[in-house]
Amino acid sequence: MAASKKILSIVVAAYNRGSMIDDCLKTFCDKRFIDDIEVIVVNDGSTDDTVKRAEKYCKKYPKSIKIIHQENAGAGAAVNNGIKHATGKYLRLVDGDDWVITTNLAKLVEELKNLDVDAVFTNYVSYHNVKKELLDPVKIIDMPTGKVFNFDEYWYRYNPPIRMHHSTFRTSIMKKHVKLDNGYYTDSQYVFYPTPYIKTAAYFDLDIYVYRVACAGQSISPEKMRTNRGRHYEILEHILQFYKESSPKLSPNVHHYLALQISGFIINHFDFILLAHEKHMARDVKKLFKMIQKKYPKIFKELKEDKKYRITLGGNAVLVHIFAFYLKQRYKHL
Q: How many structural domains does the chain have?
C-alpha cells in the first residue's frame, strides 16, 4: 500500500466476528473511495471463520484491505496493532460487528482530501440488533459544520460529549501519543488520549458510523458489565493517571473539557457497581466519589452536576439500592 495515496486508515478490530464481519467490510468496497483508504483488519486470535471471510476482501482489494494477526489480547491491543500499521493521513476505528454508511463515507473521504486538521468529527447511528432497526443519529449539537475551528476555544464554549464513533484523528498524533490498555472499555482512552495534542478540528453533519447495540455478549451488556467491573475500574485508574500527568500542560479550556468527559466515565462506572448488585455497593459508590473529591477536585466539580450523583445524594445507601433496582429494570428492556 502506497502511504502517499491513502487519506484514511480504518482499523477494524475483530474477534470471532464471522457472523458479522461481512456486514462491516462490504461497506468499504466502493469504487468512489476504495483507492483512497486502507482497511486494516486486526484478527485478535479468532477461532471461527472471521479470517476466512476477511481474506475474501483482501484478495479482491489487495491494495486497500489487509489483515494482520495477533494472539487473543483484547480489543485495545488490536487497536494498538492497527495504529502501528496505519499509513493514512487520518485514522478511525470501526468495530468488527459494526459498519459504515457507504454513501456518507464517500463524502467524508472527499472532505478529508482538502483538510489539514488534527481531528474530524461526524455523526453515528445505533442499530438495534433485536428490533432490526436504525435509531436516531447521535449528532454533536452546536458544532459549526464544514468549518475548521480552534479546538481549545470551541470545547470551552460547548463541551460536547465525543465518542469513538464520532471521531477521526490525525494518524501521526495517534502513533505518537496513544496506547490503549488490552481488553474491553478502551473507547474512552481512544478519545481522551489525543486531546492534549488537538489544535484544530472540523465537523461534518454526516451519519458515518453504525453502532450495533442489544447484542448478546456485548461488552456493554448487563452480564458483561457485572463480570468486568474490575476491568472497567482499571481503565478508570489509567485515565485518571493520564489526566494527572497531562494537567500541567493543558490549557484551562481543554482541562475543563477533559474533567467533564472523565466525570462521565466515572458515572458510567457507577452503573457497573450497581449492576453487580453486591452487598456493599452503596459503600463502594461512596468510596469512589470520596476518592474523586479528594484527589481530583476539578473532576468532582463536574461529577456533582450529574443527575445520577444528585439522585443518590452522592452515595446514600437507600437511594443507591433504589436506583440499582431501576437500573436493572431499564437494562432488561434495552
A: 2
Ramachandran category for residue 188: left, alpha or beta (phi over 0 → left; psi -120 to 50 → alpha): alpha
Model confidence, pTM: 0.93
Scored b (16 or more CB within 10 A) or e, 171-185 reads bebbeeebbbbbbbb
Map 98-127 to HEC letters: CEECHHHHHHHHHHHCCCCCCEEEEEEEEE
Is the domain of 67 the same as that of 200? yes
82 and 193 part of one domain: yes
Residues with Cβ within 8 Å of residue 308, at least 6 apart in sequence:
267, 270, 323
Q: Are residues 320 and 283 in the same domain?
A: yes
HSE-CB at 237 with a 13 A cutoff on CA atoms is 7
Residue 95 CA: distances (Å) to CA of 57, 118, 268, 282: 16, 22, 20, 34
pLDDT for 131-179, tens place per residue? 999 999 999 877 789 999 998 888 767 777 889 999 999 999 999 999 9
Q: 121, 151 in Cβ contact below 8 A?
A: no
User: Quick one: which of 226, 235, 247 has its CA closest to 327?
Assistant: 226
Range scoring the smallest mean pLDDT among 186-200, 230-244, 314-328: 314-328
Grid coordinates of 166: 464520532
Q: 150 and 256: one domain?
A: no
Domain carrying residue 206: 3-213
The amino acid at 297? P
Query: Which three-class secondary structure state does DSSP give residue 158?
Result: helix
Q: Which residues have a Cβ under 8 Å from the Cβ of 94 and sit 6 or more positions away? A: 10, 11, 12, 24, 100, 209
DSSP annotation of 132: T
Which single residue is written with the C-alpha cell 459504515?
A: 100
